[in-house]
Amino acid sequence: MDGSTASPITFANNIFGAGKGSTYETTDKKGADKSTVKIKDLGTSANAHKMISIQRTGKVSVQNSYLELTGAQDANNYYKRASYTLNRVTNGLTLLDNSTLYTQRAFNMVGGFESFKTNSDNTTEKQTVEISGNTVTRNVDNRIYTLEGINLIFAKEEGELSDRSNEDIWGDVNGMAFFGMYRPSRQTGRKEYDIYAPNYSGGAVKAFFANGTYIEGRHKANHDIATDGFYTNVADYSDESNIIVTPQVIDVTDYGTYYDWIIGEDVVNYNTSLIASTYSTWSMAELLLDYKYQQGATYTVNRVSSNALDTDINLINPLEVPTYSANSNNTFGLTMETDKSGWLKGGVTNIYTDGNGSFDGDSAYGTDNSNTPGTIIFKLFNSINVTENRDLGNVNIVLTGKTRTGEDASQGNTFKIVIAVNLQSVHEEDKEQYTPRFTDSTNTQLNYTTDSSVDITYVLYKQGLTESIYTSGDYRVLSSTVQLPAGTRITMRDYGQGDNVNKVYYYQVASNASYDSTEIVDGTTRYLYKLSNFIDMGGSLDSGSGTVAKYSDDNSSYYHSSGVDGNGYALEKYDISINLMDSGIDANQLAQETYLELRSSSGVLKYDNGDKDLTYNLYNQNAVMTQSISNEGQSYSVFENFATLLEQSVDGANIRDTKYYDKSVGLAIEIVNEVGERVKAPDVQNLKLTNTNDSTQVYTAGDDGVIRVPLSDGLATIKNSYTLSLSQYSVPAGTYIVKSYVFASDDGLHYGNETTVEKEFYITFINRLLGLAGVESTNNSRIISNGLNLDGNNGLDLTVKVGSPTDDTNIRVELYKRNPTYTVTEDESGNRQETYNGTQYTKVDLSQYLEGTWETPESQGLVTPDGCTEYMVMPKETYDTVVDLKTVAFAKAIRDGISTGEYKLVFKAYYDNTLIQTVRKTFIVTQ
After folding, report:
1. What single DSSP character describes residue 555?
2. How high is the pLDDT of residue 815?
3. With pLDDT > 70 as the criterion, what percentage of the chain qualifies?
4. Which long-range contacts (CB under 8 A, 24 or more apart) does 653-657 make?
5. What is the pLDDT of residue 656?
6. Are 220 and 234 in contact (CB under 8 A)?
C-alpha cells in the first residue's frame, strides 16, 4: 500500500493478508509464512493515516509512514471480545525510515519487532541510539505510541502467557525505537503527548497519564538492551516547580525468557471488564483488592482517566441513562462500589468522562479486620437497545492504598493502584423470554437466610412492532418452587411502561394457600401467583366499590414507538423483591427457583426463563453478631481488642442476610452501679473513648451520658483498640460496671428493639447509662391514596418507640416535601430542557398537612431551634421507675387538598433541648 503515487488508492478499515478468512496456509514448504503487508508513505506527522487493524499475515512492514490503528475484534482469537490492532502477524512488525505507529489497542500473536533504516543500496540496518545528557543521536527515528494501560506483547502464542514463562514463545526485539504514550483530545481530536512528544521541547504535567504501559519481548541470549530495545523520556517530579525531563534507554524487568520495557507510573495494576448487552440494563464485575492486603487497609480515589476510552463514548450519571435511547451505543453510566460485607467504610463512586475523567460520590474506602481482602464492584449501566459488538476502550481509576504493619500509622505500606476497567458492548438476538438475573449480582446461584429478601430482575425485549408477541387474554404469573408462606411480602417495580411511568406494586401473601394454581414441572411442584393480585401503590381507590387499583395485564402498554429507527419495540422489565422476614420459614430450602411467565388466557405457558436458569438456597440461619473484650469481667480501665462479626458461611459460600444490608454497626458504652442505677450527666465529666491506634478519633459522652461509636457501614469484622477515660465529678467513689453494646441499626448510633450483644467489666467513677432515645416506626401504612393507606386505615398510622426514656426525654417532629426530580426550562427558541435536581426536600409546616392538635416545644417550657418548625410527639414526663421501652401512637389523618408527592417526617429525640437522634420516615400521597 503505497501512498506516494500520483493517484493513490485510499486505504481504510481492516487489512487482511489472507482475505477475511479465519484460517490460511503458507506457501513455504518449511512452514514459514512469506506473506507481507507493506505500508509506505502513508500519513504525515500532523495527520497520521487512520485504519482499524492489520490481520493474518506473515509480516507487517511500515515505511516512512505515520499510521494509527484503532483495533478490531476477532471471534477466532483466544480472547474473543478483546480488540487488537495487529492480529496474527506471525513474523512480526517492522518500522522503517522514520515511521511512527499509533496503536489504541494491544497486539495478538505478533511474532517480533524490528526498527530499521534503509540504506541507499536498499540494504537495511538497525536503528541505533546514543544518549548523552539531554542529547539523543540516532540514525533514524522510528516510534511506537500507545494509550495508557494498553500493553504491547510480541509473542508467537496467545492466551494467558504469564503462566508460560518457562517457554520460548516471545518474539525478538531488534534495533532501537522510541516508546511513548499519547491520548486523543476529547475536545479537538488532536494527539496529546506531554513528555513523550515527538519533538519534545520542555514542560511537563504531573499525572498527565494515570497509568503506565509496557512492551514485552524475548530475552535473547547476550541481549544488549541499548542495541535491541526501547528508549523514552523520563520526568523527575520531586520538585514540581522544576520538573526535569531526560531521555533514557528503558531498563527492563527480567522474567527469564522475556523482558518488560515499562514506561509511566510504577503502580499495582488490576484489570476487569464490563459488557453492556441487550438483555440487561447493567452489568457487574467484582475485583478483589488483594495486593499487599493487611487487615484494615484503606483506599482513596485519587483520579479517573478516560484517556484510553474511545472519544465518542460518554459516561454520565447512571440515573440519567434511559431504558431505551438513540445514543445507546455511546452513552453509559459507570460506578465503583464496595461489596455488602468486608468493609468498615464503604460507598459508591460515580465515574464520568468529563474533563478527561472525573468522579463524584464517595472517595474513601476502608476494609474491615477479616483475613479476606475487600471486593470492589463495578457496574456499567446501559440502554437496552445496544446494537454494536464493540470494544469501547479502558477507563483507568487511580487509588492510593495504605496498610498498617505496626501498632500505629507510622508503620505500614503506601502504594498506588490503577484499575483498568475495559468496557465493551454486545448485541444479542431478541429472545421471547423473561431473562432473569439477581438484581445485585451476576451469579446464577445465591444463598440467603430464610428471613432475607430475594431480589430478581426479569427482562423481555423484542425489537420491532410488525409482529405481535401477545394475544388477547395473556397474563403474567410468578412461578415459584417455594410455596410462599403467609406474611411473605412481594414488591414489584415495573419499568417496561416507559422511563416516566415506572410503577410500584405490592402483594402480601395472606395464607399458605394463597397461590392461584399449581403445576408439576420436571417432577417439582410450582406455585403460581398472578401479578393481577398485586396492588398498585400509586393507584386510586374506587369509592363506589371500595376496591384498590391493581396490576393490569395491559400488553399494549409494553409496546413503544421509537424515534431511533422508526420501528419500535416491546419491552418488559421488572425488579421483584420477595421479602421473607415475616414468613416463618424454619427449614432449609435448597435449589429454589422463581421465574416470571406469560400465559395465554387458557393458562398455557408462552414465555418463561428460556435458556437462563437462576437458583437460590434458603438457609435457616442468621448472621451471628458476637463481641469480645480482652478484660471482660476484670477491673481495668482500658478497653481493648474489641471485635464483632456479622457474617455466616456454609461450605465456603456466603449466606446473604439482607436484614443487615441497610444497617450500620455501632457500639454504645454505658456505666451503671452495682444495683443497676444509672448516673445522669453531668455527674461524670470528661468521659471519653479514644482509639489507641489513632489518637484523633475521640468519642465523648453526650448530654445523656452515653458514648456512641459508629463502627462500620455494613457487615464487617472489626478489631479496634480503645482507651476509656473519665474524671470523677460528683459520683460517689466505688466500683461501677462498664457495659458495651454492639448492635446493627439504621444509623449505627442508636437502637430501640434491635438485638444487642452485651459485654461488661468493672471500673471506678462510672455512672449509669442514660436511656437511649431511639425512635422507630412501622412501615406498612405510608402510602396514602384518597386519604386511606394500604391497610385501609385513615391516613398515617405510625408507632414511635422510645428506648429507656428519662425525665428529660422529649420527642418532636418536622415535615418536609420532596422537590421535583426534574426542572423543565424553555429557551427563546422554544426548546425544552430537563435538568436533574437529585433528591431534595423543602421544609413545610406540618400542621397545615396533617390533622390534629399540635403543640410547640415552647408549650412545654422547651425551645425550638432556629430555622425549625417542630411539634411535640412525646412531652417530658416524670418516671418513678425505669422504663425500658415507651410506645407512642402517631395516627394522623391527611388534610384535604394537599398536593400529591413524597413527604418526609423527621422524628427528633431530645434530651431537654439537646438533639440526640433523628429518624426519617417517608410517606407518599397519590390522590
Report:
1. G
2. 96
3. 79
4. 653/447, 654/341, 654/447, 655/447, 655/448, 655/449, 655/619, 655/621, 655/623, 656/340, 656/446, 656/447, 656/448, 656/449, 656/452, 657/448, 657/449, 657/451, 657/452, 657/622, 657/623, 657/715
5. 58
6. no
For residue 314, which of 331, 336, 335, 326 has the smallest C-alpha distance?
331
CB count, 10 Å around CB of 556?
8
From CA 368, how far away is CA 818, in angstroms rounded?
36
Residue 733: pLDDT above 70? no
Find the range with the poorest average confidence among 310-324, 602-616, 645-659, 880-894. Answer: 645-659
pLDDT of residue 408: 39
Sign of CA dihedral 208, 213, 215, 221: positive
The string of DSSP letters for 293-334 reads --TT-EEEEEEEE-TTB-TT-EEE-GGG--SS-TTTTTEEEE
pLDDT exceeds cutoff 80 at 583? yes
834, burial (CB in 10 Å: exposed 0-12, middle 13-18, buried 19+): exposed
Q: What integer pLDDT is reported at residue 467 of this predicted model?
A: 65
What CA–CA distance (Å, rounded) separates 753 from 884? 10
Average pLDDT, the chain: 81
Q: Which residue has the higher pLDDT, 83 or 267?
A: 83
R_g of the chain, CA atoms, integer Å: 33
What pTM value is reported for the model? 0.56
Residue 667: is it exposed, middle or buried by C-beta count within 10 angstroms (0-12/13-18/19+)?
A: buried
DSSP code for 155: B
Domain boundaries, the chain: 14-263, 268-426, 431-619, 632-764, 783-925
Give the three cell numbers for residue 409. Answer: 500509622
Per-residue pLDDT at 631: 47
Q: How far apart are the C-alpha atoms of 204 and 208, rounded to whole Å?
A: 8
Provide the pLDDT for residue 611: 82
Is residue 211 a contact partner of residue 149, using CB atoms and an 8 Å limit? yes
Grid cell 451471628 is found at 624
For the purposes of burial, counting CB atoms within 10 Å of the CB of 122, is it exposed (0-12), middle (13-18) or buried (19 or more)? exposed
Q: What is the DSSP string of 399-421?
A: EEEEEE-SSSTTSEEEEEEEEEE
Give the three-state DSSP class for 880.
coil
Q: 153 pairs with which residues across the strands?
A: 216
Query: Of the segments 233-242, 494-503, 677-686, which one has the largest average pLDDT value?
Result: 233-242
Task: Quickly list DSSP for 613-642.
Answer: --EEEEES----EEEE-TTTTS--S----E
CB 218 within 8 A of CB 112: yes
Measured distance CA(170)–CA(120) in Å, rounded: 32
Average pLDDT for residues 302-325, to the nearest whole number? Answer: 91
The residue among 605 and 652 whose pLDDT is bigger is: 605
Other residues' Cβ atoms within 10 Å of the Cβ of residue 98: 17
- Ranges assigned E (strand) in 327-411: 331-338, 343-345, 348-352, 358-361, 364-367, 375-381, 390-404
Residues in the chain: 927
pLDDT band at residue 284 under the 50/70/90 scheme? confident
Residue 71 to residue 48: CA distance in whole angstroms? 15
Assign 804 to helix, strand or coil: coil
Is it the case that residue 654 has pLDDT exceeding 60? no
91: its cell numbers: 513474523
Q: What is the CATH number of domain 632-764?
A: 2.60.40
CA atoms within 13 A on the CB side of 897: 1
Residue the block writes with cell 429454589: 592
Report the candidate in 871, 904, 911, 645 with the shortest Cα–Cα distance to residue 774. Answer: 911
Place of cell 464483632: 644
Share of the chain above pLDDT 90, in %: 39
